[in-house]
TrEMBL record:
<feature type="transmembrane region" description="Helical">
    <location>
        <begin position="243"/>
        <end position="263"/>
    </location>
</feature>
<feature type="transmembrane region" description="Helical">
    <location>
        <begin position="40"/>
        <end position="57"/>
    </location>
</feature>
<dbReference type="InterPro" id="IPR026841">
    <property type="entry name" value="Aur1/Ipt1"/>
</dbReference>
<feature type="domain" description="Inositolphosphotransferase Aur1/Ipt1">
    <location>
        <begin position="74"/>
        <end position="254"/>
    </location>
</feature>
<dbReference type="InterPro" id="IPR052185">
    <property type="entry name" value="IPC_Synthase-Related"/>
</dbReference>
<feature type="transmembrane region" description="Helical">
    <location>
        <begin position="190"/>
        <end position="212"/>
    </location>
</feature>
<protein>
    <submittedName>
        <fullName>Phosphatase PAP2 family protein</fullName>
    </submittedName>
</protein>
<keyword id="KW-1133">Transmembrane helix</keyword>
<feature type="region of interest" description="Disordered">
    <location>
        <begin position="1"/>
        <end position="27"/>
    </location>
</feature>
<dbReference type="Pfam" id="PF14378">
    <property type="entry name" value="PAP2_3"/>
</dbReference>
<feature type="transmembrane region" description="Helical">
    <location>
        <begin position="136"/>
        <end position="152"/>
    </location>
</feature>
<feature type="transmembrane region" description="Helical">
    <location>
        <begin position="106"/>
        <end position="124"/>
    </location>
</feature>
<keyword id="KW-0812">Transmembrane</keyword>
<keyword id="KW-0472">Membrane</keyword>
<feature type="transmembrane region" description="Helical">
    <location>
        <begin position="219"/>
        <end position="237"/>
    </location>
</feature>
Amino acid sequence: MGDVTVRTPERQEEGVPHPVTEETGQGPLRRLRVPRRPRLWFEILLIAISYWTYSLIRNAVPEQRGQALRNADWIWRLEQQLGIAVEESVNHAVNSVTWLVVGMNYYYATLHFVVTLGVLVWLYRSHPGRYAATRLVLFATTGVALVGYYLYPLAPPRLMNGGHFIDTVMVHETWGSMASGDLKNMSNQYAAMPSMHIGWSVWCGLTIFALASVPWVRVLGLVYPVLTLVVIVATANHFWLDAVGGVLCLGFGYGVAFVWYGALPHALPRTVPGAERRRAWWPTRA
């Protein structure tokens, strides 16, 4: 058996990173702002309830069809004036390659959730000190998007009056959109602005790029939102400007996290400082 040594306060302080937000004072607001180790059961429950609430509110927004179609016409005319109205050409080009468009349909329907949840799990396991702040960005982004759905109903390109866009899910009979086929009555079809496919994918991409240690994984993080942008346009679910709206919502989310924690999520300690201090006081063998 080896000798038992206990670290003194002076020694253990040397090896423990200080949090960006120092836990001084005993106020409840101060304590809430200090990154803490996430609890698995609470996070699962929080994410499930939050997404259910988001879907409920999003679908409860009145489907203002007339206004949504007028807004779509206005967006299309604006893009034509800006010289960026190429969504129809992209939509038709991709639709001509069956395997490609079918793949994009499934991409649109699945990766939006799979990748986002995957990044949350990775943060929970590998970056617990940054998890809460990064999750706050995602929640604030999604919350402000609900305001956009209410204030600015917008029809996607595939539902425009007199448009020549192709609803790729309907044409190729793939399961790929809650707003197509038999599922359309379960989702608000006129909530295209802002695009949360872009808001969430850019959140994923920036998080991976900022925190991943493997270079090719960081590159994939940047590629993912670019591919998502191509997919949402090619499947006629969004205009380019919907993507801009999604990025603006994400900027709001990062602003909320910065105000709350006093730093952007990637600048916070990787581990939870309080937990590190508790482990440092535990007897260790020489």
